[in-house]
Amino acid sequence: MRIGRLALLLMLLIGPLAACSCSDEMESSKNLTQSTQYKIISDNKYELLEFVYTMLIANAVDEEGQKQGEMLYAQVEKYANSIKTKNGLGDVDIAFRKIAYLYNSTDQYGKPIELSAMIFWLGYFQNEEWYDLAPEDIYLMEHYTISSNSEAPTVGFPLEPLVSGNKLIIMPDYIGYGSTRGMIHPYLNHELCAINSIDALPSGYALYDTLSAKSMAEGWRTVVMGASQGGGNALAIHKYMDTHASLAKQWNFAYSSCCAGPYSPAMTVDIYLESGKTIYPVVFPLTLKSMLDSYPALFNGYSEEDFFSANYLNHKSKIDEMIGSKNYTSTEINNYFFENVRITSSEGLADNEILLKDILSEAMLDQNSQLVRQLYKALDKSDLTEGWRPKHPIKLYYSKGDKVVPYQNSIAVQEAFGYDMVTVTPFSDDMSHHEVCAAWMVAVK
Predict the structure, then answer these.
(1) Tell me: the pLDDT tens digits for 134-168?
(2) Contacts of 145 (CB under 8 A, 6+ apart)
(3) DSSP letter string, 130-193
(4) Helix H segments across 346-391?
(5) What is the rounded CA–CA span in Å between residue 371 and residue 432?
(6) Residue ranges of the alpha helices (H) in 295-407?
(7) CA-CA distance, 385 to 346, in Å (whole number)?
(8) Tell me, what's the pLDDT at 14?
């Protein structure tokens, strides 16, 4: 589930944790860089305001995009000026350093794997010399849904780090992107994505500790953040931290900040099926490919074709190529659905909507079928509303106008864990999915 228009503007080590296990405690260590391994892929520095202006304003695709870009640019400019004031800097150019690196983790098959991630921190140029700034906190940042490799954090330039202020940001690519581009992305396999992301922390910190002239600011904390799919993954990391106390202590875990995430995947699919239509059709092949790949034992006797309509199957090879190549954005794949897969028109159906009966088989449309029950068993493995109790605050954000990730996900988390641990902040009801995610990026730090 991706942010959409804003994403288009931005397109120009320790040993792995036990796969899918929440019971083994990681040994705490005072030395966060001990026994780490990493390999640097790339290392570049950019002037912050010049970069943001070029990406968000100069390359805006339309008037709406330019207005959003100007809003975000103003936020970054505010950050840059406050950082200069706080650090007693004069006429210098605040800049950022982005390093892509490899680290060790575990894949969905329980095997060791080398994944890629990005680390990001601020500095400044003075007389063409680079100087590091001391980050105030660590943000373990989970990115939203992508389908093209050019959008992966190590390859492209995600928006979230650029508007986060003076933070050390570690942002994994996830399996299926970056160094593992040829693999199936374990979409909505929250626990695996959480483990893969946590494994990026020690190597990223070691990399910063080795290459930066500055230490982290006194009293630094780790905050887990993400929007859309990243919101679900961020809350999954929160769960892992809170069920592994020594890990949370080791990383000074403070809280999670999650926007519009699918915290209960089965409920999310259920709401889709009840509505009978979607503006985000790519979610179905992404989800089904992931669940079949991650939990094959649950689908014994079923194939991917069993979930789709005859009409969809006429286009399946093309959609599979678009998804598998990692050359197409979610917007491009969704547009293919609207232009080629949609065969049923209905009064009140928008140009960017498609009826589910054009995509899904009769068995998949029947919420009581054995096929759907098996799918829900797989999705329930990633349900973040049960099976644990949070020990650190959860901050959730949503809009009732979101047609991509139902807002009921946020309500379900608060109902499960209570108002003391979960703060839910609604944005305007007329905000779309990408608008509420953009608002969260600007407003929440």
Answers:
(1) 999 999 999 999 999 999 999 999 989 998 999 99
(2) 1, 2, 187, 228, 229, 286, 330
(3) EEE---S-EEEEEP----BGGGSTTTS--HHHHTS-S-EEEEE--TTSGGGTTSPP-TT-HHHH
(4) 362-365, 370-380
(5) 31
(6) 310-313, 316-325, 330-336, 362-365, 370-380
(7) 35
(8) 28
What tokens were used for 86?
Answer: 């706080």
β-strand pairing of 222-227 with 277-278? unpaired
Q: What is the DSSP letter of 36?
A: -
User: Which position has the token pair 């490899």?
Assistant: 102
Closest to 225 measured CA to CA, from 154, 161, 270, 173: 161
pTM score, two decimals? 0.91
Distance of CA 345 to the CA centre of its chain: 33
Q: Please report where in the chains the tokens 């589930």 appear, as a residue.
A: 1
Task: Output the pLDDT for position 443.
Answer: 79
Closest CA to 261 of 161, 361, 409: 409
Determine contact, residues 327/144, Cβ cutoff 8 Å.
Answer: no
Give which of 137, 122, 130, 131 is closest to 81, Cα–Cα: 122
Q: In this structure, which amino acid lies at residue 60?
A: A
Lowest mean pLDDT among 214-218, 287-291, 440-444: 440-444
End-to-end CA gap in the chain: 22
Helix (H) or strand (E) holding 393: none
Distance CA 280, CA 331 (A): 9
- pLDDT band of 12, cuts 50, 70, 90: very low
Measured at the alpha carbon of residue 284, what is the angle toward residues 198 and 352, in degrees to the nearest 5? 115
